[in-house]
Amino acid sequence: MMKTKKTVSENGNYHAPVQGKTFIKNSIKEIVFYRGYQTVSWILIIAFLAVVLGMTVSVILNAFGEEWYGTFLPQGFTLEWFINAWNAYEVGEYFKITMQIVFIATVISLILSIPSVYILARRNFPFKQALISFFQLPFTLPDLLYAIPVASIFYSIGLAETMTGLIIVNLIVGVPFSVFILLPYMESIDPRLEYAAESLGATKFQLFRRIIIPQIVPGITASAINIFIRMFNTFTIILLISGPKTQTLNVMVFSVLQGSGSQPPAMLNSLALTLMIPLLFFSFISLWVSSYTQRRLGK
């Protein structure tokens, strides 16, 4: 071990080694830098949250307010703007179309993803990891990267501006996301349960119905809610292939806000909230289901 030589001054006092002084200075610099970085980070986060929260509160107050000119709060609150927006833009019809498309696409996504997940979890085959990576592409790549080619193909084969076409493009998002969520649940099932069931004469259908499906019910629930929210919020590819009679709620809201013209701001804010409220509601359900599932699984 290398020893540090101490130096003695003329009056007999010991001086700290040069290496020790350098180490202390560097430590102080690191502490100051870290605390400064942490402080700046918190300031930026708080500022960002304040801006987002402020804009959200402003939209909410404007949507529910009667008159708001130069005062801290509106002079009164009303639902009239929501009623006018609902009737003027036929929000109910667009919401119905959106729910039909998303619900059907969610069911089909689960039906297709469960067997796929079982094969990925139980079978080894060439390029398995490449296939798993391929399933992750739709929610890792920018939407436009695959939305424009898909839209071009759909217009050429006549599936654009149809309900069938909108359901199929939602599957591009739903199936990979469902596989991504269900795969850990399927891998956690003990294969010995399947071997025992097969040794007792269970068929593949019985194995799925009585062993596999009950074991992954929490995963199916979490997958269904999450892909439902994700498809409800799909915008780019729906914007490219939807028509006047097949627009979803978010595309309709975007179209109205883009060409708002002389519409009252309060009505436009009310229209925006008709899209925000369902998304917030579904998000809270997703969080509750995830928390409930974790408690049931003892995590």
TrEMBL record:
GO terms under biological process: transmembrane transport
UniProt keyword annotations, A-Z: Cell inner membrane, Cell membrane, Membrane, Transmembrane, Transmembrane helix, Transport
InterPro entries: MetI-like (IPR000515), MetI-like_sf (IPR035906)
SUPFAM superfamilies, alphabetized: MetI-like
Keyword hit for Phosphoprotein: no
Gene3D superfamilies linked to this entry: MetI-like
Record-linked CDD domains: TM_PBP2 (cd06261)
Record's keyword annotation contains Ubl conjugation: no
Domain of life per record: Bacteria
Membrane topology, from the record: Multi-pass membrane protein
Record's subcellular location: Cell inner membrane; Cell membrane
Domain ABC transmembrane type-1: 95-286
GO cellular component: plasma membrane
Main localization, broad class: membrane
Membrane spanning stretches: 42-64, 97-121, 133-157, 163-183, 216-241, 266-289
Annotated family: Belongs to the binding-protein-dependent transport system permease family.
Protein name, UniProt field: ABC transporter permease subunit
